[in-house]
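cron nightly-structures :: item 1 of 1
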Amino acid sequence: MCLSYYGLKKIKAQTQQPNPDTTISLKSDSTWRASRVLSVGWEKPGFDDGEWIYATAPSRGTCGQGKVGNFEGDPMWLSGAIERETVYFRKKLIVGDTPKNARIKAAFDDDGEIYINGSKALSDWDGKAGEHAADVTEYLRKGENTIALVVKDSYGICQSAAVFIEVKIPFANKYELNMPPIKQSTLTWAPMQYAGGVKDDMFCGITIGDCGCVITSLAMLLTFHGVIKGPDGFNTRPIFLTSICHKISAVITRVCERWLCIWRCGVERCT
């Protein structure tokens, strides 16, 4: 009896504390999609980046791991970096309301451009590594936004791209997040063994359909936040998450009970 058990498509969060603005942020990290190949329309919202791989972060390319000063975002690049190469990055940002204010900070090593929903929002081609900032309120909109950047190592030595976006939207006492519906009852994985099966002596049963409440909920959350493919290269789904749960089934059981408590809080007090 968890979120995915009821097939919920939306999660509703409420608060009684007034607040003039709500802040949403996005930073560079290893959940960004990246590619070395220049493709037509790569910066546009409708472009399919499903064949792109995930960026490596924190990474300064051939200089190894490391941060860029006190910058909020992690420096990212692709594995197997070489000097003077160009890399393209993409990421989705969900904004719950029309932005009141939005600013972006970027650190390129060395040059680059940032596009928001297909429009160029920031550009620097001075041939030097450095940080840049811009007001990008006009480029963002309510709903899904596509952030895309291209970064070139013009000087050599190190390579990295770091981004931090902060968006302020009007406060609301309720937000609805459109979650991808992933159900434990889906026939593709429902009959499959959950974690260790009979060895785990689970009270609910032995299959994903019986006990897969947590892993299907996790798959929903991961997909919502942009982790759309698992380590095996296929779409994020309960099948690969159950292998992770194999040795921690008792813990997963307790987490599942907490999910049920959270759901109940929507209709009654949790004690």
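cron nightly-structures :: done
DSSP finds four helices and twelve strands in the chain.
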